[in-house]
Amino acid sequence: MIYLDNAATTFPKPKSVLDAMYAFMETTMANPGRSGHRMAMETNKRILETRIKLASVIGAANPLQIAFTKNASEALNMAIVGLLTQGDHVITSMMEHNSVVRPLNRLSSENRIELSVIEGDFEGFVRWEDIEPSIRENTALIAITHASNLLGSINDIGEIGRRIRQLNQTREKQIAFLVDCAQTAGCVPIHVEEMNISLLAGAGHKSLYGPTGTGFLYVDENIFLEPIYCGGTGSLSESLNQPEFMPDMLETGTLNAVGIVGLGAGLDYLADKGIENIMKSQQALMEYAIAKLESIPTLKFYGSKDVRRRSGVLCFNLGDQDSQELVGALSEEYGIATRGGLHCAPLAHRRMGTEKQGMIRASIASFSTNEDIDALAEALTRLAARADQLK
To answer: Global pTM?
Structure first.
């Protein structure tokens, strides 16, 4: 199968990731932080090594400010629910994934927070000029995705973070900046300190090339989160209270050690390839894809065609055909894996007017090729022609 669903999870994983996980399970795997024997200590070491590698990728000075989670959704819930208190005001956008929208909507519906949802433009970009008019005295959090999982539009997170830093210099109530980097970590440069990111939530299984079941949350040293889970941490076992230091306060229970080791190998693969090189190669492939698909009758693109401002995501429709039916045809008739429907981003579809039809999403990774795009273009051309014949 030609795999073009990398925005959901990258496939195939590098062989080095599979090898590292197998070797770890065969020789080393023990419960980290719970025992003093050699295998447990080696597991601790491997987890710390991955933490250090990840800190380097996101520009974090202190690796211990990174907590491992099972996915980006869990990390986002930890950040949102752990930070906000009664009466806080939050600003987010219509481009966010449900992992941001749903916890915020729940808190708002329970009258625990006030919520402002801004539109952004029709290409999916959210700018400071969109955000600033909604800021209030009780604004505690601004939550903006680095890149839309629907349109691929890469927001200028550095500029938004800089403006928040400036604003906080004159405010009594500080505004935290939460960024969802599930679609960008590993293929778009990120630096949490230079970008003034307070909370960064990401997935380990997408462009970081780790296995599913891995994610992370970076927490700035000036931010305290109320843990949403309490339990065993391997530290301060004499206390009945959850530790208040990172990463223990957020890492409750046995960690997914084998997954984290796999993530570490994915980060090695990433370091060997180079994020800048991956970004440039994906931009070149996206440019090729747009040029190739634009000639298909009835095909409609969504988002910017400037490949420097978008991730490796292409969303489109063929006329008024149902997106999920077409995804099924691409899979069953042509052996091409894409995704259709609403992509867990209903507000973004509402903004684009596609909440009923959905969109077809094709997403690339570092190992995608021009031949993959050629096959997709040929299949879509045939599907478009067949639809015309049935009219």
So the answer is: 0.96
